[in-house]
UniProtKB/TrEMBL annotation:
This is TraR/DksA C4-type zinc finger protein. It comes from the Bacteria. Keywords: Metal-binding, Zinc, Zinc-finger. SUPFAM superfamilies: Glucocorticoid receptor-like (DNA-binding domain). InterPro entries: DksA-like_N, Znf_DskA_TraR, Znf_DskA_TraR_CS. Residues 30-71 form the DnaK suppressor protein-like N-terminal domain. Residues 77-105 form the Zinc finger DksA/TraR C4-type domain. The lineage of its organism: Bacteria, Pseudomonadati, Pseudomonadota, Gammaproteobacteria, Oceanospirillales.
Length: 107
């Protein structure tokens, strides 16, 4: 479980860094739009993509933080819904999962 915790901590740090880069990009883009209509359209599309990527990073970070908390509480390899052990292969594939495969499929 120590390896998984370390993997999650690295992932957490990467997600925080990614989130901050998206935020910085959005803050730089706060100026007036380019005068050319085509360029304006591209800028707005880029902003929408950055917003979606930032939201995705934030959602994944929330899941990683929750999984780290469960590891610290000694429950990191148990399904939070049914209490059964989560298969090691599932944890290897999705290290921040908190549900066994059966419970995840029911959601």
């Amino acid at each position: 479980m120590a390896d998984r915790k370390q993997e999650l901590e690295v992932l957490r740090d990467e997600l925080i860094d990614r989130f901050e880069r998206y935020k910085a990009h959005k803050e730089q883009r706060g100026g007036p739009l380019d005068k050319d209509m085509e360029d304006q359209s591209i800028e707005l599309q880029n902003d929408d993509v950055i917003e979606a990527l930032q939201q995705e990073a934030e959602d994944e970070l929330r899941q990683v933080m929750h999984a780290l908390k469960r590891i610290d509480e000694g429950e990191g390899d148990l399904c939070e819904q049914c209490g059964e052990p989560i298969d090691a292969r599932r944890l290897a594939a999705v290290p921040y999962t908190t549900l066994c495969r059966d419970c995840a499929e029911l959601r």
